[in-house]
């Protein structure tokens, strides 16, 4: 039986994440969906060496060779985050990834809504799934695929890159995972402490194409625009060459690379 809210205030004794390690699973997000109702843990991380049905955004799959990358999902119970501001969870998770990856290489940005980019190439993708109950966010599953040591990509993903391709050597995946979990804890605590403006400001600073005009494409065709902001609701606001504001939900607009 789940009792919630689980935790009203962060204290010095806040427990750190529980990490579950699996060799193979269909999808780490699916694993947590199955187990979420049984856990009251503050933060549960499940990581797998291989996924037989790794899920990407929409109908996409997520390609990852066995034991070369990081495939993991983080389950939290962010009942303190207002449902209307749930994009903050996306921002916090993306910032955690960026903070760690900045320690490995220059050129890391966050492509709206939550891809991690190295220059114009995708280093990491995220699949966030939340469940709402009684007006609160009961569960948030933040699933991350981070390309670490894989050097060739066979799927039709348009522009993948791995840390090993960037750095020219293999990376210790265990250490990287520990660093990322610690960063997740840090940013999640910021959410618990209500530091919403700080998270949003950091996210905006980290955005891919934060400054300048670039080409985008929506249902009506291509246009040049600059990013104005990402709203609390996660909508992307662009301003086109005619000065017109255009607002988009995820997948309504494409960044033309
Ligand atoms: C994207 O399409 O960019 C999102 C990819 C998310 C992939 C990760 S891998 C770990 C977790 N489990 C899944 O099935 N998907 C996410």
From TrEMBL:
Read off the PROSITE patterns from this record: BPL_LPL_CATALYTIC
GO MF annotation terms: biotin--[biotin carboxyl-carrier protein] ligase activity
Question: Please, which domain of life does this record's source organism belong to?
Answer: Bacteria
What is a single Pfam family found in this protein's UniProt entry?
BPL_LplA_LipB
> BPL/LPL catalytic domain location, by residue?
14-192
UniProt EC number: 6.3.4.15
Alphabetically sorted, this entry's keywords are: Ligase
Q: Which InterPro entries match?
A: aa-tRNA-synth_II/BPL/LPL, Biotin_CoA_COase_ligase, BPL_LPL_catalytic
Q: Where are the transmembrane segments?
A: none
Supply the CDD domains for this chain.
BPL
One GO cellular component term of this record is: cytoplasm
For this entry, the protein name equals Biotin-(Acetyl-CoA-carboxylase) ligase
Q: What is the lineage of its organism?
A: Bacteria, Pseudomonadati, Bacteroidota, Bacteroidia, Bacteroidales
């Amino acid at each position: 039986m789940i009792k919630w809210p689980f935790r009203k205030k962060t204290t010095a004794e806040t427990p750190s994440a529980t990490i579950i390690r699996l060799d193979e699973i269909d999808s780490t997000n699916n694993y947590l969906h199955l187990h979420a109702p049984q856990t009251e843990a503050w933060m549960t991380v499940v990581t797998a060496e291989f996924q037989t049905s790794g899920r990407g955004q929409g109908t996409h799959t997520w390609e990852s060779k066995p034991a070369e990358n990081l495939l993991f999902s983080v389950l939290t119970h962010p009942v303190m985050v207002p449902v209307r501001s749930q994009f903050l969870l996306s921002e916090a998770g993306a910032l955690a990834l960026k903070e760690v990856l900045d320690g490995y290489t220059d050129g890391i940005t966050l492509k709206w809504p939550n891809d991690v980019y190295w220059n114009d190439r995708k280093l990491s993708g995220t699949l966030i799934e939340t469940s709402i109950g009684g007006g609160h966010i009961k569960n948030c599953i933040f699933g991350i695929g981070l390309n670490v040591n894989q050097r060739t990509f066979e799927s039709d993903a348009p522009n993948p890159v791995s840390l090993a391709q960037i750095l020219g050597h293999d990376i210790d995946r265990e250490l990287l995972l520990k660093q990322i979990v610690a960063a997740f804890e840090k940013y999640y605590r910021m959410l618990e402490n209500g530091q919403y403006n700080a998270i949003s400001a950091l996210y905006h600073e980290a955005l891919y194409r934060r400054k300048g005009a670039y080409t985008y494409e929506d249902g009506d065709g291509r246009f040049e625009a600059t990013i104005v902001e990402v709203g609390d609701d996660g909508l992307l606001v662009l301003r086109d060459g005619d000065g017109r504001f255009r607002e988009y939900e995820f997948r309504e607009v494409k960044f033309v690379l």
